[in-house]
Amino acid sequence: MKLGVNIDHIATVREARKTDEPDPIKGALIAQDAGADQITFHLREDRRHIQDEDVIRLRCAIKKIPLNMEMAPTEEMKKIAIDIKPERVTLVPEKREEITTEGGLDVYSMKDYLKRYISELKENGISVALFIDPDEKQIDASVETGADAVELHTGEYANAFSDTEKKKELERLKRAAVYAKDKGLRVFAGHGLTYTNVQPVAAIMEIEELNIGHSIIANSIFMGLDEAVRLMKRLMLQARGEL
Q1: Catalytic site residue 191?
Q2: β pairing state of 127-132 and 209-212
Q3: Mean confidence (pLDDT) of the chain
Q4: pLDDT tens digit string along 166-175?
Q5: Assign residue 18 a region: left if phi > 0, alpha if psi is -120 to 50, beta otherwise?
Q6: Is 49 tagged catalytic?
Q7: pLDDT tens digits along 13-38
Q8: 100: pLDDT confidence band, cut at 50, 70 and 90?
Q9: Which DSSP category does 45 fall into?
Q10: Strand partners, 70
Q11: Which of 9, 42, 49, 153 does the annotation list as catalytic?
Q12: For the CA atoms of 92, 93, 95, 100, what is the dihedral angle to 10 degrees?
């Protein structure tokens, strides 16, 4: 079980004052040293947190572990990805008015476009994942596009109020993970995962990686980023019986 640490919200704090601190690259290096298996960042079209300069600096600074660039499937972002060459690109939906990503990419409705888009990324040595809802139709469409992996959107599980609803969403994630794995896709997951809800998702054996940002960065205010990363990784490994 691997942990991708999303550093976007370090940049969110910086952009609140439009200054030069806190530095997301310093955060990425701390996370790397604390046991993160990957650094994830989202270069949004509106540049509300991570900036183009951050992406260049990240590519120069992070050498020991992979970079995962979340991005909308636009021509602008494709050009940046091909230039920077992160180890992986994760294609996500994006709306200007949203606070954070609200759901998975509708791969089914844009299969033909994504086939060409993904092909060009892979020709440049970049692995491609699609951020989708845990839905079989979207998984089948992801296979057709030639994607290497899917990242299952865990937001409905994370936002469920009742134990019954949470159990229902967890079962949905389990079914989707098994289905995607059987279809030959690598399976990741993320969105809304915290120290209190991560273990049931981490225990799903078909899921090999979780990408977590907000909870780690938020709790780093109180415990420091190093310990925040170590604790999340520890909880994940415990859930898998790997610790």
Answers
A1: yes
A2: unpaired
A3: 96
A4: 999 999 999 9
A5: left
A6: no
A7: 999 999 999 999 999 999 999 999 99
A8: low
A9: T
A10: 42, 90
A11: 42
A12: -50
The set of residues, in sequence order, having a beta carbon less than 8 Å from that of 204 and lying 6+ positions away, is 173, 174, 177, 189
The 8-class DSSP code of residue 110 comes to: G
Placement of tokens 């530095």 in the chain: 23
- Among candidate residues 9, 49, 153, 191, the one labeled active-site is 191
List 9, 49, 70, 209, catalytic entry = 70
- 21 burial class (0-12, 13-18, 19+ CB within 10 angstroms)? exposed
- What whole-number distance in Å separates Cα of residue 123 and Cα of residue 82? 10
**d(C-alpha 169, C-alpha 177), whole Å:** 12
The answer to whether 147 touches 118, Cβ cutoff 8 Å, is yes
Burial class for 177, CB neighbours closer than 10 Å (0-12, 13-18, 19+) = buried
Q: Hey, what are 137's tokens?
A: 């139709």
Is 206 tagged catalytic? Answer: no
Reported in sequence order, the residue ranges of the chain that DSSP labels E, i.e. its strands, are 2-6, 38-42, 67-71, 88-91, 127-132, 149-153, 186-190, 209-212
pTM listed for this prediction = 0.95
